[in-house]
Amino acid sequence: MSSPIRVATVITRMEGGAGVLALRGARALDPDRYRVTLVAGSGGRLLDQAASAGLETVLEPALRPTIEPRRDLQALHRLTGMFTRRGFDVVHTHCAKAGAVGRLAARRARTPRIVHTFHGFPFHAFQSAARRRVYIGIERMLGQDTDVALCVGSGVAAEAVRRGVVLPDRVRTIGGAVDLDAPVCTPQARLRARRALGLDPGGVVVGTVARLTYQKAPEDFVTAMRALARYDVQGVWVGDGELADEVRRLVMRGRPRPRVLLAGERTDVGNLLAAFDVFVLPSRYEGLPLAVLEAMVCGIPVVATAVNAVTDVVVPGETGLLVPPERPELLATAVAHMLDSPAEAARMASAARSRVDERYSEAALAEVLAATYDSGARQAGVVSLRPGG
User: Fold this and answer.
1) Where is the chain membrane-spanning (predicted)?
2) Does pLDDT of 279 surpass 70?
């Protein structure tokens, strides 16, 4: 029997949708064929879950999400050393920062196969043109050393090809990895979820699950709840982040004051989704958020911004409603429509659950990863065409 393929999965923060996808992908692989080591700059319960699943975990604190030259060089040096010593067959990076440092380290260590997952991009329409050009240039440079780019959703894949950040024949489109056996929201599940959040069991709840960051536009959520001007509606944001204090102040400012609960970081997100009458995604830019897929599986109507790969699953008028980013007044209008048209909202929620089919299962993700990793193993004896290889 051949030796297992040794894979280093590298991610800056083992949290959020990217962390869940990395964990579920690693966990779904056949342990007799693949030996996965999860390397993270920081982690919490997801890293604990990985260890409980029998996966090797390595914490590299120098790997941070912000640009810190001294720390970044330290992380590059340490990862290069680890990849060289351990002789990984594949280095698979996730997200921008780990993608940059991890891919450079893999190239220096002459790793046979370099894979990167684009959950989204560090460049977007809401930054200066100069910064955007720099980020695109960096991604194009890194793309030269990327054997396969796994893009979360067709919108992300199309953007990768359009921007030329990797050669077209190296691009693959993947979905999220959700539990397709998760139960549809029931009155009992809704009651339990609202009790867990301290909400009125009979009220109307509009909520989301995301980090409180610029990307996720929490201020637009608050503004939309204020524009909704319905005192029977409770807004809920599940998640924490660097904008938490600022968003709390925003909730308290102005009139009318919206009813918005900032629930913070929770470990029971899957159970809390049932509390929502409508799930809202106000993001400025995205890949394909796992929370949207999980809300659809739960049977919650979705209103989202029309960004990147969100349109893979949110089809306007069929599986949800879309609005432009940074238009909280239109977000409020769409939410009001869902609340005022419960039969139509239920129809779209049912269609959405049907759309999240086997393409978004852990098994489907494992199949793509296996094909990607195996292809590299078969080519391991071929002279590398990579510069310096």
Assistant:
1) none
2) yes
**pLDDT 10s digits, 71-99:** 999 999 999 999 999 999 999 999 999 99
Q: What's the token pair of residue 387?
A: 């510069």
Q: Identify whether residues 117 and 235 lie together within a single domain.
A: no
Burial level of 270, CB count in 10 A (0-12/13-18/19+)?
Answer: middle
Same domain, 153 and 207: no
pTM: 0.88
Do 125 and 75 share a domain, yes or no? Answer: yes
Pairing outcome for strands 260-264 and 233-238:
parallel
Of 84, 80, 90, give the one whose Cα is nearest residue 35: 90
Q: What DSSP letter does each residue of 73-124 carry, written as one string?
A: HHHHHHHHHHHHHHT-SEEEEESHHHHHHHHHHHHHTT-SEEEEEESS-S--
Cα–Cα distance for residue pair 301/349, rounded to 1 Å: 5
Tell me the C-alpha distance between 2 and 268, whole Å: 40
**Residue 17 maps to which CATH number?**
3.40.50.2000
Residues 146, 139: contact at Cβ < 8 Å?
Answer: no
Measured in whole angstroms, the distance separating CA 9 from the mean position of its chain's CA atoms is 15
Do 171 and 196 reside in the same domain of the chain?
Answer: no
Residue 320 is assigned to a structural domain of this protein = yes
- Residue 16's DSSP bridge partners are none
∠ at Cα 295 (289, 300), nearest 5°? 140
Place of tokens 């409508």: 278
